[in-house]
Structure formats: structure tokens, C-alpha cells
Design a protein that fits this description.
By secondary structure, this protein is of the alpha/beta class. The chain has a single domain, classed as Cytidine Deaminase, domain 2. Helix content is 27%, strand content 33%. The chain contains four helices and eight strands, in the order βαββαβαββββα. The strands form two sheets. Strands 3-2-4-5-6-7 form a six-stranded mixed sheet. The chain has a two-stranded parallel sheet with strand order 1-8.
């Protein structure tokens, strides 16, 4: 199961909305071995495409060096689908190289840049096998304060 803070969820969805009609992509880093998605890192889709994403190799190398220096790992690797459901494509499965990561897909096909709800789903992808997992969104302090009477 993926447990993610409302603030991180909102940031991923906002990135997907902002980049629509192109696919958005990024990483949420967390302390090694903890499965805690803590640091939102939006990336540039080097492909600049509505049907494909590709991390910029220079940006990705810098991110991995930074995560290494902070004793972090990629807890979530996310991208958006702009015209299809939030399910990994064959290409997505082939690119999945982090067996401990949660692969999050956000579909903006129904929403685009509007305020309608998005499809937000998480998967584990190990050796080409896709397993969908539940997502639990926890309130961040701002959301807790906002909902307190």
C-alpha cells in the first residue's frame, strides 16, 4: 500500500494538470528503507509528448546524486497519461527499474486542465509484473487545521 500526504498528492495532481496535454513526470524521494514519500521532485518530460515521458538524463543523474547525498531513494515515480486510463503501458512496464518504488499514474484524460477529479492509481512493477495497490492519503498539518472547527 502507498501512504502519501495530501500535500504530495496535491502537488502530483497539480503537476499533471499544469503539463497537460503533455505527460508530466517526477519523483517523490524519501529516507532509504522507510517507504516514506516525503520530498516532491517534479521533473521535465524531455520527450515533451502527450503519449510518452522521458526523464532528462542530466536532471535524473543530478537527482540520484542528490538523493544519495541525503540517504534517500525514489519512493514514488510518477507520470501522467493524458488520453488513457491510469494504468501502466507496455513502455511504462519496460522502463520500471526500481523494484522498491511505487509507480503512480495520474490520468488527466477526463479532466485536462479543469477542476474535475483525476484518476490517481499506484502500482508495484517488479520483473514486468504489474500489481495495483491501495492508496491512503493522509492529511498534512495545513489540511488538518483547515478541517478543524
Amino acid at each position: 500500500m502507498l501512504t502519501i500526504a495530501q500535500e504530495i498528492y496535491d502537488a502530483i495532481v497539480a503537476h499533471a494538470q499544469r503539463d497537460h496535454p503533455d505527460e508530466a513526470c517526477g519523483v517523490v524521494a524519501g529516507p532509504e528503507g522507510t517507504d516514506r514519500a516525503e520530498r516532491f521532485v517534479p521533473m521535465v518530460n524531455a520527450a515533451g509528448s502527450p503519449t510518452f515521458y522521458e526523464f532528462d538524463s542530466t536532471e535524473l543523474l543530478a537527482l540520484y546524486k542528490d538523493m544519495d547525498a541525503r540517504d534517500e531513494e525514489p519512493v514514488v515515480i510518477y507520470h501522467s497519461h493524458t488520453a488513457t486510463e491510469a494504468y501502466p503501458s507496455r513502455t511504462d512496464i519496460g522502463l520500471a527499474s526500481e523494484p522498491n518504488a511505487h509507480y503512480v499514474l495520474v490520468s488527466t484524460r477526463e479532466r485536462g486542465n479543469s477542476e474535475r477529479p483525476v484518476e490517481f492509481r499506484s502500482y508495484r512493477i517488479i520483473d514486468g509484473v504489474v500489481t495495483e495497490e491501495d492508496v491512503t492519503i493522509t492529511p498534512t498539518p495545513e489540511h488538518q487545521r483547515a478541517s478543524t472547527p
